[in-house]
Design brief:
Elements: E1 21-22, H1 32-43, E2 48-52, E3 61-67, E4 70-76, E5 82-86, E6 101-103, E7 107-109, E8 116-118, E9 123-125, E10 144-150, E11 153-157, H2 165-177, E12 192-201, H3 205-213, H4 218-221, H5 223-228, E13 246-247, E14 276-282, E15 286-291, E16 294-304, E17 307-316, H6 318-322, H7 328-348, E18 362-363, H8 368-382
Antiparallel strand pairs: 1-18, 2-11, 3-4, 3-6, 4-5, 5-10, 7-8, 8-9, 10-11, 12-17, 13-14, 14-15, 15-16, 16-17
Bound molecules: FE2/S2 (inorganic) cluster and fe (iii) ion (FE).
Length: about 400
């Protein structure tokens, strides 16, 4: 009897055992066209956490930040409010500010033909404008971008009609903690920056989100974290959806690299929040971690289909930072977690274009949050005809 050799075909997602679910196919992490759709339908349509408000301390301070395909300019106005504009001169389109951060005394002046805008974006001067009486200065101010402040950060939205901030940012975050006041107890907006580390990760932003959403990998790659939070060693926790509060291990005194004591509990933190770690993801690009004596906030800046900058802030009580106390042992714990996570993401990125991953991989049951994230992403991308909503 002869048999016809057949080449093994990859298992289709439909053939997976019912307990396993397929991931997205590999090209979702490598295709520039899909990344462009994500820029348009996610980063340019949703509220995007752009800058820490306190980084713009004085009137005249400004920051430029990339949001989707746009450069956004955030300024502190003369009257002390934050404003956001597209970083584009209305004359002939020159980039108004090239620096990532800076400070002006009074106005922003375009380096090309010197059109000048005040910190509220109004066109206040332009050479020879008196000879052009028809120009409507009010109509040629900088293009305003919606801005809201929450947790001590400025969130911007490029959509013509931004979605409800209360529902899509505050509500979505709070819902995951299961208690409307839980996150407010930490008063993140009153905290001071103890440390900021920026990570340039050679991986698609979704690999970073997916990694944040599961703790299946915790026992393998996070020895320090699982020492402090023993439940993470079991792999069932969703590392970054810890709404119930993961309890510190016995003998652990604080959320530090060796489990040694941290600082005094933040004043608003409730008794039942003490010795616990909470974490939430605010889609699409923010992760917030809450522990009794500090808050860790990650902001992602997806720059290309295979490159994401992650800026991580460690926030403490102002008196801790003012006293010059050594925060390095608590910073070191999550810095190691970040380094371990981002190394894993960078290890995964090259394989996304392998034929082995053409149909994607699989999710085990404890990774079910990733499946929910994928369903959400597909809904957003499928909603393309309603771009801008
Ligand atoms: Fe800005 Fe001409 S492009 S002044
Ligand atoms: Fe991790």
């Amino acid at each position: 009897m002869t048999t016809t050799p057949t080449s093994p075909s990859p298992r289709s997602p439909r053939q997976l055992p019912p307990s396993l679910v397929a991931t997205l196919p590999g090209h979702y992490y490598t295709d520039p066209d899909i990344f462009r759709q994500e820029q348009e339908l996610l980063f340019e349509s949703m509220w995007f956490c752009a800058v820490r408000s306190a980084d713009l301390a004085k009137p005249g301070a400004f920051r430029t930040v990339r949001v989707g395909r746009e450069s956004v300019l955030v300024t502190r106005s003369r009257t002390g409010e934050l404003r956001a504009f597209l970083n584009v001169c209305r004359h002939r389109g020159a980039r108004l500010c090239l620096e990532e951060a800076g400070e002006v005394r009074r106005n922003l002046q375009c380096p090309y033909h010197a059109w000048t805008y005040d910190l509220d974006g109004r066109l206040v001067a332009a050479p020879n404008l008196v000879k052009m009486p028809d120009i409507d200065r009010a109509a040629y101010g900088l293009v305003t971008v919606a801005l809201r402040e929450w947790l001590g950060y400025a969130w911007v939205c490029l959509a013509d009609e931004p979605p409800s901030f209360e529902e899509t940012v505050v509500g979505a975050a709070v819902e995951r903690l299961g208690d409307t006041a839980a996150i407010e107890h930490y008063r993140a907006e009153d905290l001071a920056l103890g440390r900021r580390i920026s990570y340039d990760v050679k991986a698609n932003w979704k690999l970073i989100v997916e990694n944040f959403m599961e703790c299946y990998h915790c026992a393998t790659i996070h020895p320090e974290l699982t020492d402090v939070l023993p439940e993470f060693a079991h792999g069932y926790a969703a590392q970054y959806y810890v709404g119930h509060g993961a309890e510190f291990g016995e003998g652990v005194q604080g959320f530090t690299v060796d489990g040694g004591a941290g600082f005094a509990k933040l004043p608003g933190v409730a008794e039942d929040q003490d010795r616990r770690y909470y974490a939430i993801t605010v889609k699409p690009t923010v992760f917030v971690n809450l522990v009794p004596d500090h808050v860790i906030l990650h902001r992602m800046f997806p720059l290309a289909e295979d490159r994401t900058v992650v800026e991580c802030d460690w926030l403490y009580a102002p008196e801790v930072v003012a006293s010059g106390a050594d925060v390095s042992r608590s910073v070191e714990l999550f810095h190691r977690v970040n380094a371990q996570d981002f190394e894993a993401c960078e290890r995964t990125q090259p394989a996304m274009s392998s034929r082995a991953y053409r149909r994607g991989g699989v999710l085990v049951p404890s990774e079910h949050h990733i499946g929910i994230f994928h369903a959400w992403l597909m809904r957003r991308l499928g909603a393309r005809p309603q771009a801008g909503t």
